[in-house]
Amino acid sequence: MRVNAVVLTELYIDETGNVVSTRYVGGDERFFFPAVSKATQRWKFQPLITSGSPSKFILPLTFTLTWRTNPLAADIHIRLTSPGNVTPN
Fold first, then answer.
1. How far apart are CA 46 and CA 4, in angstroms?
2. Whether the predicted pLDDT of 12 surpasses 80
3. Residues 13, 19: contact at Cβ < 8 Å?
4. Alpha-carbon gap, residue 70 to 51, rounded angstroms
5. Residues 55, 86: contact at Cβ < 8 Å?
6. What is the DSSP string of 47-62?
7. DSSP conformation class of 15
């Protein structure tokens, strides 16, 4: 049996490309948000350049987590999707 959870987030990225915070926006399982937030703190992005200078930006991301309930098949798949809209902050 497969189980799915969806967590909608916004990542706040600073001028150097570091994730400075992650905000829970919605989804099926708020329970998974702390793990998602902790994982994203290690991510690094290329800075968004606006008018020739690095800028802060907000990146909306949807995390879709899928796993099997069989303990012998403990595989977890994570799919990330973004609408492609990056908002300068």
1. 30
2. yes
3. yes
4. 52
5. no
6. PEEETTEEE-EEEEEE
7. T
pTM for the model? 0.77
From residue 26, alpha-carbon distances to 2, 6, 17, 51 in Å are: 21, 8, 24, 33
List, in order, residues 6 or more apart from 28 with CB less than 8 Å away.
4, 5, 6, 7
Alpha-carbon Rg for the chain in angstroms: 15
> Which residues are within 8 A (CB) of 72 and not within 5 positions of it... i.e. 6 or more apart?
none
Q: Please write the tens of the pLDDT for every residue from 33-83.
A: 898 898 888 899 988 898 999 999 999 988 888 776 665 655 556 666 666
Q: CB-based contacts of 23: which residues, under 8 Å, 6+ apart?
A: 9, 10, 12
Query: Mind listing the domains of the chain with CATH numbers?
Result: 2-88 (3.30.2420)
Asked if residues 65 and 84 have their Cβ atoms less than 8 Å apart, the reply is: no
